[in-house]
C-alpha cells in the first residue's frame, strides 16, 4: 500500500513544467535593499536566513538563536527601508557589524 501524500506529491512534481523547475541563481552580494524590502527576489526571511548562515559560517558558529535572527532581520529591514540603494550585505555589515 502506498502513502497517498507521496503519490500526490509525485503527481504534482510531474505536472510542473520544466520552466517552473528551472534553477535560478542569485548573487546575494548584489541584492539591493529595495529588492529585499519589496520581495523582488524572494521572501526577505529566506534571504535573512541565508545571510545568518553565511556570517555564522565565517565565524565558525553552528548555533542559531531564532529570536536574535528575527530581531536582526527587523533591524536590517528597517535600515534598508531608509537606504534602498545599498546592498543588503552592506546593510547587514552596517547595522550588525561584520562579526554577526
Briefly say what this structure is.
The chain has 100 residues and is mainly alpha-helical.
Report on the architecture of this protein.
By secondary structure, the protein is mainly alpha-helical. It has one domain: 10k-s Protein, Hypothetical Protein A, Chain A (Orthogonal Bundle). Helix content is 63%, strand content 0%. The protein is built from six helices and no strands. α4 (44-59) crosses α5 (66-82) and α5 packs across α6 (88-96). The longest helix has 17 residues, at 66-82. It is globular. The termini are far apart. The mean pLDDT is 85.
The rounded Rg comes to: 18 Å
Total number of beta strands? 0
CATH class: Mainly Alpha
Looking at the overall shape, the CATH architecture is Orthogonal Bundle
**Any idea how many domains?**
1
- In this structure, how is the largest beta sheet organized? none
Secondary structure: helix percent = 55-70%
CATH topology: 10k-s Protein, Hypothetical Protein A, Chain A
Which structural class is indicated by helix and strand composition?
Answer: mainly alpha
| Number of discrete helical segments | 6
Which residues sit in consecutive blocks of at least 5 with pLDDT less than 50? none
Q: SSE order in H/E notation?
A: HHHHHH
**What is the typical, i.e. mean, pLDDT?**
85
Distance between the termini: 49 Å
Portion in beta strands: under 5%
Which of globular, elongated, flat, extended, rod-shaped describes the shape? globular
Amino acid at each position: 500500500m502506498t502513502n497517498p501524500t507521496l503519490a500526490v506529491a509525485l503527481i504534482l512534481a510531474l505536472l510542473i513544467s520544466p520552466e517552473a523547475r528551472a534553477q535560478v541563481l542569485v548573487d546575494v552580494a548584489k541584492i539591493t535593499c529595495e529588492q529585499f524590502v519589496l520581495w523582488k527576489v524572494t521572501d526577505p526571511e529566506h534571504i535573512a536566513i541565508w545571510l545568518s548562515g553565511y556570517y555564522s559560517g565565517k565565524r565558525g558558529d553552528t548555533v542559531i538563536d531564532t529570536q536574535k535572527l528575527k530581531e536582526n532581520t527587523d533591524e536590517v529591514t528597517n535600515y534598508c527601508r531608509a537606504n534602498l540603494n545599498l546592498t543588503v550585505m552592506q546593510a547587514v555589515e552596517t547595522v550588525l557589524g561584520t562579526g554577526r
